[in-house]
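Materials and Methods. Structural model of Sigma-54 dependent transcriptional regulator. The 456-residue sequence of Sigma-54 dependent transcriptional regulator from Bowmanella denitrificans was retrieved and submitted for structure prediction as follows.
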Amino acid sequence: MSELLLIADDDPGVLSALGLLMKAEGYQTIMASSPKEVLTILAQRDVQLLLMDLNYSRDTTSGEEGLQLLQRIRQQDDCLPIVVMSGWGSIDVAVASMRLGANDFIQKPWENDRLMAIVQNQLKLAGIQRHSQKLSGHNQLLQAELSGDTQMVAESASGKELMALIQQVAVTDASILLTGENGTGKSLYARYIHDLSHRNQTPLVSVNMGAVTESLFESEMFGHVKGAFTDAKAARIGRFELADQGTLFLDEIANTPYSQQGKLLRVLEDSQFEKVGSSKTQQVNIRLICATNADLGEAVRLGTFRKDLLYRLNTVEIQIPPLRQRKEDILPLAMAFLDKVARKYNQPRLSIDSAAQHTLQTYAWPGNVRELQHMMERAHILCRSGKIGPQDLGLNTTAGTADNAIAGNNEPDLRCLEVIEAELIRQRLAYFDGNAIRAAESLGLSRSAFYRRLEK
Ligand SMILES: Nc1ncnc2c1ncn2[C@@H]1O[C@H](COP(=O)(O)OP(=O)(O)OP(=O)(O)O)[C@@H](O)[C@H]1O
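The predicted structure was written out as tokens:
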């Protein structure tokens, strides 16, 4: 449907001329001949632009009525594009109306081409503004969803120590390197640090460095201008720019291609970068958090990670212990996950019987907290009574490791492919001590294919 324009003037000749012009250009119009009518129509109809005269009573030229009207509209609506029309010699009135919130001004008698250019521009700008408001609304919802639903659990001595350290460093702007096995909670702690920091009203932008291909690295991180390369049909904003004034979280930092590490170092040191295809230098202000399950010191020794980059990342290094080393966290975490899943399915929360509690506490947790979370969700779904027993955990407890949960069983494996695939990925990660690259290689998968499956 075409846009609806409200045209306000006390001269019927002007109204009919403008009505014809706008109709010929494909717009719908609605007319008002007094300020009162304008306010009534605006209260009832979804008008996309107001084109208004400033004088309504016979023989007045001061523009006072129009300015008052403008002021009243702007008290209620900041966004409606308003184009003001007035007669000769009224520069002062034009300036006054712009100060009161008019978007543009045209002198009478108008030139049709000029008026149409103004109307089209104002409609376009208003569309962009609506779109950006929608995006920022979506963004706020997503941020609230991400940070709102997870309650941090830390009951063990090492868990509490970790939380104290995190609270201490979060409020500084220091770069933080989080290390720990897969599923220990590195991404969650990164968000927690951001939420505690003075940047918490700005975005936390995450990048999984294992999923960024070498060829698209610069465009992904720094953005590109339109036409920078064959596929660059539109300009793109990179992650650094998106994170400006906020926090940039680089997950799986060890997987940054070596050839790109120098470029990353430069922007981290100088806070400056150029978009691909542009020579204009841009400035950014970000707080950096990185995470890895790899031993970066070893990677430096092996020559796959730059030493200078490591020194730039690890101002503060925080090690997140594996779940098997903080056993007192297991049951509180399990209960928190059962709470969460009960809320998700709107069902009562299940409890865990003492045999299952023992199983959970003696299991090795190669997939750490993530494995526990999935196990609790599965147990909630499969449990037939109000209490989860060992049989609901899907573990072969005599063997004590996840690998044996499948291998020690002579029954045919009748689970669906997705479940088997997930289990296999977990096993391989555990086998290779959380090293995703070696796990991917052992499964004959490319790094990006492996990450896609892992994220699924
Ligand atoms: N202390 C905790 N309290 C509550 N939930 C936690 C805690 N630690 C981890 N989790 C949950 O466990 C899951 C895995 O955590 P997360 O994704 O942060 O791990 P990770 O170390 O970043 O994993 P990866 O190395 O695979 O990226 C998430 O759903 C997270 O919310």
